[in-house]
Amino acid sequence: MSDYRRPGVYLEEVLQTSPTQQGTANAVAVFAGVAPKGDAGVAVRVDSWADYTQKFGGFDPITVSDSGVPSQLVSFLPYAVFSYYQNGGRTAYIVRVLPSASGAQGSVSSIAVKDNAATPATVFTAEANGSGKWGDDLEVVILHQALDTASNRNIFSLQVFQQQGATTRLLETFNNLSMTGVAGTRPAIAAVNDPVAGSRYITLVAPTTPTGTDPNPATYDLTGGADPGTPIANDLVGTTITDAMRQIDAPLLCSFQPFRKQDGSYIMPPAQALSVNLNSGRLDCFVVWDGNPLAAAGASYVNDVNQRASGIGNANSYDAIYCPWIIVPDPARPGSTIIVPPSGAIQGMMARIDATIGTWRNPAGLPAVLSTAVGCEVKFSDTDQGSLNFNQINVIRAVQGSGICVMGARTRKLYGPDRYVGVRRTLIYIEDSLKLSTQYAVFENNDQRLWTSLRQTARQILDPIWERGGLAGSTAGQAYYVVCDQTINTPQVVQSGEVRMEVGVALQYPAEFVVIRVTQFDSGANLTAEIIPGQIAA
């Protein structure tokens, strides 16, 4: 302890080799689907339903143009996002799907903003954020604010309006802009294109040869937008979509939303082991699949779901499939209902359970109620549920006194503890927490002090999980172990620049089948019956 006698300021250095570590944020949802507007082929963050509607539009049918013939389709993407937030979801990412066919992506509305020279030159081009005729309703207004006498350059504001019938609505305003970054102003192109505080509707593009002049104060109407064509099923799960998802640096809950064409047919994302591609180089992407709607099923709905699940395979614990579709109040038409895929509501329910209990609580049973659902498209019998559960398909059913609940917690894997959703997602949570919480160890001296620090960091993550019931065992020693010492960090390992730590965890198994034996005693004879609440074994 220092000896403080002289009044003044004392400096001390403290080496903190093991900062207090906690588990990382839970998984975020990412949705791929068709939307009327917005950036395509990239993952865009949305933090609320209002944020989504501003960036991608709402529930209205989407206009598409196939071979110049306009038609409409109903996308289930907005219903999934709406259900996600209504069921407890928080942060989400959206990937807008466009057709991959050449020339079918539509075109972006744009306008060249000119200067006021005798022969006007383009100062920058304003483009709508995403293809479609919706951009033709936008207009950009440049207003003169002041003149900077030192540089003789204009300071101006840029406003974005949207024409809605006979009315014009102000969407955004960017003040104190300049083309050169005059003191006290913001460079116009950088300010409008800022990924956080910039425009949600337009992007400014500088010309190849900048003019070095200021924009002429005027109103500029965007034109030239064209609606894209209709995507095909493979577009919903194409490499453009999965690559965009893989750019998100967080554990993911992924879903791929279908849509319905004008003729009433459904375009479903082809069920496949997509998580293999998503998890290439990472192991934290979990895919939530929807079964087919009843209208698109064959003679037997159970056989149809089994056939769809077979496309995913039965060897991967990073996929789960849910059925049937659910009936929800139609947010676009108050007083009516609509049948929608369950994945959006399930992702929201998972986010709610993650936040209130933890990822180790299987998203099934009475806590897994889908709060927006008022019914199921198909009512399964106990025999049907047993058959589907035996085939690793999670059934959604009405539970008396609770509502519409998810009554299955199986991944597509047939064996091992990670055949359960909660176990797989707990492993993802632990692995991601350990990865991020040990970043401080990179380039530290590889000796006993670092090994002790890493062991302590791992315990600080695993102890709270065990205490909250996420790991099995009556003591911490039974729940997990951590090895990081000279037994695995041999001189050869240290000389190669590596430090190794081994972590073992005792995973919890869910009480999937609750068996209650009721025995009646009568004159020495026993009569025994079994009551199995919830799921029935096949």
Put the structure in a nutshell.
With 538 residues, the chain is α+β, with helices and mostly antiparallel strands. The protein is built from twelve helices and 27 strands.
Question: What are the defining features of this structure?
Answer:
538 residues; alpha+beta; Rossmann fold; Immunoglobulin-like; eight-stranded mixed β-sheet; five-stranded mixed β-sheet; 27 strands; globular
Can you walk me through this structure?
The protein has 538 residues and is an alpha+beta fold. The chain has three domains: 28-100 and 229-419, Rossmann fold (3-Layer(aba) Sandwich), CATH 3.40.50; 110-221, Immunoglobulin-like (Sandwich), CATH 2.60.40; 438-505, no CATH class. The chain contains twelve helices and 27 strands. It has helices at 49-56, 77-86, 188-192, 239-246, 275-278, 301-312, 343-356, 382-390, 421-437, 448-467, 476-479, 491-495; strands at 28-33, 43-46, 62-66, 69-75, 92-96, 110-114, 122-128, 138-148, 153-164, 167-178, 186-187, 202-205, 219-221, 252-256, 259-261, 266-267, 285-290, 319-323, 326-329, 337-340, 375-376, 394-399, 403-406, 480-483, 502-505, 516-522, 525-531. Strand 19 (326-329) and strand 20 (337-340) form a beta hairpin. Helix 2 (77-86) runs parallel beside helix 7 and helix 9 (421-437) packs antiparallel against helix 10 (448-467). It is globular, with a radius of gyration of 29 Å. 39% of the residues are buried. The model has no long low-confidence stretch (mean pLDDT 89).
What gross morphology would you assign? globular
Tally of individual helices: 12
- Unreliable stretches: none
In total, the number of strands is 27
What is the CATH architecture assignment of the largest domain?
3-Layer(aba) Sandwich
CATH class of the largest domain: Alpha Beta
